[in-house]
Amino acid sequence: MNLKMNTRCLNATEVPACNEVQCGWAANQSLEGAQELAKELLAKCDEWSIVFQD
Hints:
The protein is built from 2 helices and no strands. By secondary structure, it is mostly helical. It has one domain. The longest helix has 13 residues. The radius of gyration is 14 Å and the shape is elongated.
């Protein structure tokens, strides 16, 4: 995961290329969903370096 990318997601106002011409799945994209996922990932960013837990 990229910390900078997830932080940018939280500040976004639209999903890039979210239209019928640039993305056939545009109707399935959700800025709110992406921001919620980014919040969940960022909340655990201190664990990103842990590959295996004991």
